[in-house]
Write a structure and sequence with these properties.
This protein has 305 residues and is of the alpha/beta class. It has two domains: 219 residues, Rossmann fold (3-Layer(aba) Sandwich); 63 residues, YebC, transcriptional regulation domain (Alpha-Beta Plaits, 2-Layer Sandwich), CATH 3.30.70. The chain is built from ten helices and 14 strands. A hairpin with a 2-residue loop joins β12 and β13. The model has no long low-confidence stretch (mean pLDDT 90). The structure holds adenosine-5'-triphosphate.
Length: 305
C-alpha cells in the first residue's frame, strides 16, 4: 500500500471573484496523523469539501484513498471508507445519540446486523455510553462534539477527516480526543486534522501542511519544518554582523541577539566567538522553535524575537 491516503494536484476553487483555493498540492501518506493548518479563510474547509465531493473543484485533481475526484463512481466507493466530522455541526435535537448514530449507519448503508455493535463501540470510544438514550438537545456542546466524532468513526473508516474536533471540549475532552487519535493511528487509520490549536497539532500530528490564501506555504514532518534550535544571548559590545555564520537568521533586539536555526551543539563555539570578539555575555537562553513561532514567521506575523 504505497499510494497516498489523500493527494491533491493544483486544486483550485473559485467562488465568483474569490479564489478560495489557488493551486493546492498536498500529499498525505497512509497511516499519518496529518495537521492541516492555516489562518481563517485560508481555504481549509473548502479543501475538505472538495475532497468529500460536497463541492466541485474549478480545476485540478485530487485522489481520496487512490480514487480520483474525476471518476465519480470510484470516488463514491472510496468515500464509504472515509469518516468525517464537520465543524460546528448541529445534530437533530429531538433524537437520542443512539438514534443519531443509527441514522448515520443507515446513511452510510452499513449492513443492519452490524449497527448495534458499531454504535456501542462508537459510544464507548467517545465516552457517551450511559447517556445514549438522552436527547441531543440536552447535551452540552462538548457532548455534541463527542457525538460527531462517534459518527465519524462508524464502520471502521480507513481515513478520518476531523474539522476542529476539539473546539468545544474542555481540557479533559481534548486529552480524550488526542488519545482516540493515537488509537486510530495504532490501528493504521489515516487522520486528517484541521485545527487552529497549534499546541494540539504538535502533540498529536506527525506531519503538517500550512496553508495560506489557498496554497500550501510549508509542509513536512516537524523536523523538516522547524528550522531547529534558536538561542537568545544578552550581550554588549558585539560588532554588527559578527555571528552571521552561526545561524540561518540573526536578529538584534537591544542587548539581545537572537540566532535562529543554530544546531544545539554549536552554542559553545558561538559563546567562545562572542568572548573572543571582546563582547560581554550576561545571559544565554537556548530555545526550541515552536510550531507557533514557525507558523507566525511563515505568515509574516512574527514580532522579530
Ligand atoms: P476558517 O479557519 O475560518 O474555517 P478556512 O481556512 O476553512 O477558514 P474557507 O472556509 O475554506 O477557509 O474559506 C476560504 C475562502 O473562500 C474565504 O475567503 C471564504 O470567504 C470563501 N468562501 C468559502 N465558502 C464560500 C462560499 N460558499 N461562497 C463564497 N465564498 C466562499
Amino acid at each position: 500500500m504505497t499510494e497516498a491516503a489523500l493527494r491533491t494536484a493544483d486544486l483550485t476553487k473559485r467562488y465568483g471573484k474569490i479564489g478560495a483555493l489557488k493551486g493546492l498540492t498536498l500529499d498525505v501518506p497512509r497511516g499519518a496523523v496529518f495537521g492541516f493548518l492555516g489562518p481563517n479563510g485560508a481555504g481549509k474547509t473548502t479543501a475538505v469539501k472538495l475532497l468529500l465531493g460536497l463541492s466541485r473543484a474549478t480545476s485540478g485533481e485530487a485522489w481520496v484513498l487512490g480514487a480520483p475526484l474525476s471518476d465519480a463512481r470510484r470516488h463514491r466507493e472510496a468515500r464509504r471508507r472515509v469518516g468525517y466530522l464537520p465543524e460546528l455541526f448541529r445534530y437533530q435535537g429531538w433524537l437520542t445519540s443512539r438514534e443519531v448514530l443509527a441514522l448515520h449507519c443507515e446513511l452510510m448503508r452499513l449492513e443492519r446486523p452490524r449497527w448495534a455493535a458499531e454504535i456501542d463501540r462508537a459510544l464507548a470510544v467517545v465516552g457517551l455510553a450511559g447517556r445514549e438514550r438522552d436527547r441531543v438537545s440536552t447535551y452540552s456542546k462538548g457532548m455534541q462534539q463527542r457525538l460527531g466524532l462517534g459518527c465519524a468513526l462508524l464502520g471502521h473508516p480507513d481515513l478520518v477527516l476531523l474539522d476542529e474536533p476539539t473546539s468545544a471540549l474542555d481540557p479533559v475532552g481534548r486529552h480524550d480526543v488526542r488519545e482516540i487519535i493515537r488509537e486510530l493511528k495504532g490501528d493504521g487509520v489515516t487522520v486528517f486534522l484541521n485545527s487552529h490549536l497549534l499546541s494540539e497539532v504538535e502533540q498529536v500530528c506527525d506531519r503538517v501542511a500550512i496553508v495560506d490564501e489557498g496554497r500550501v506555504i510549508a509542509s513536512g514532518t516537524f523536523d523538516e519544518l522547524l528550522a531547529g534550535d534558536s538561542v537568545r544571548v544578552r550581550v554588549t559590545g558585539l560588532p554588527d554582523g559578527a555571528l552571521a555564520s552561526f545561524g540561518a537568521q540573526v536578529d538584534r533586539d537591544g542587548d539581545w541577539t537572537v540566532i535562529r536555526g543554530i544546531r544545539g551543539d554549536r552554542i559553545p563555539d558561538l559563546i567562545a566567538e562572542v568572548v573572543r570578539l571582546g563582547a560581554r555575555v550576561y545571559a544565554v537562553e537556548p530555545a526550541h522553535e515552536s510550531l507557533e513561532d514557525r507558523f507566525l514567521s511563515l505568515l509574516g506575523k512574527d514580532q522579530g524575537h
